[in-house]
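Title: Comparing notes on inverse folding

I've been comparing how different people in this forum approach sequence design from structure. To keep things fair, I'm posting one structure and asking everyone to reply with a full sequence. Here's the target:
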């Protein structure tokens, strides 16, 4: 996956198309990401002890990584990799395919 925790993304498909947010958590095995404020589900939780009230929780659930795209400014961009060499050390950095800038 070319998307990491903390990236700003835009949803490009599904019921939340056009919404933006930051990645809260990634799930590499299932290729899904959880985005703050996107794909929100309502969960009714019972009381845990007697004489305490139950509650209704708003939980953001994972979205498949193919339905989101990285944002650079206000545009959706594709991510790529570039290997930079400094003498003997090589580092792999993410770049924007459109502009070639580091992400």
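Reply #1:
Here's my take.
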């Amino acid at each position: 996956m070319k998307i990491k925790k903390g990236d700003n993304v835009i949803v490009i498909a599904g019921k939340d198309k056009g919404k933006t947010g930051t990645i809260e958590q990634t799930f590499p095995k299932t290729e899904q990401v959880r985005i703050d404020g996107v794909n929100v589900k309502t969960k009714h939780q019972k009381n845990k002890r007697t004489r305490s009230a139950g509650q209704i929780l708003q939980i953001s659930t994972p979205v498949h990584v193919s339905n989101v795209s990285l944002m650079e400014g206000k545009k959706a961009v594709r991510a790529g990799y570039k290997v930079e060499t400094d003498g003997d050390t090589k580092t792999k950095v993410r770049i924007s395919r459109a502009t070639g800038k580091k992400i």
